[in-house]
Design goal:
This protein is mostly beta strands and 115 residues long. The chain has 1 helix and 9 strands; from the N terminus they run ββββββββαβ.
């Protein structure tokens, strides 16, 4: 998780992918098959230019964007935008507890390491 820039600070999940390279993003669309928090199987469609992994069975999707931030997608499909690179303590707790309330976190990444 360290290479992907995932940190937990003060009970809050922080996404800070300093070592993520452009070459690690998908060159073409793909899918991610996973086991959801409720035990069911899910398939997540991923567009080109993204990278996905799971954290406590919650899909995390990194995508290149002109502005940093993140979106938390809830079980009911509602999405809320969060400025910066941290998820609040309540949402982080939901992820850690694997409640299924958080369906996905989409992280907008501005700078990628290409050195």
């Amino acid at each position: 998780m360290g290479e992907l820039g995932v940190r937990v600070q003060g009970g809050r999940i922080r996404f800070w992918p300093l070592l993520l390279r452009s070459a690690e993003l998908l060159a073409r669309p793909a899918t991610l098959d996973l086991v959801a928090a409720d035990g069911g199987r899910e398939t997540l469609a991923l567009p080109a230019g993204t990278l996905a992994f799971t954290l406590c069975q919650v899909p995390i999707v990194y995508r290149r964007a002109p502005e940093a931030g993140l979106s938390v997608v809830e079980r009911d499909g509602a999405s809320r935008r969060v400025a910066g690179d941290r998820v609040d303590a309540e949402t982080s707790g939901q992820v850690f507890a694997r409640t299924g309330r958080v369906r996905r976190v989409e992280v907008d990444v501005v700078r990628l390491y290409d050195g």
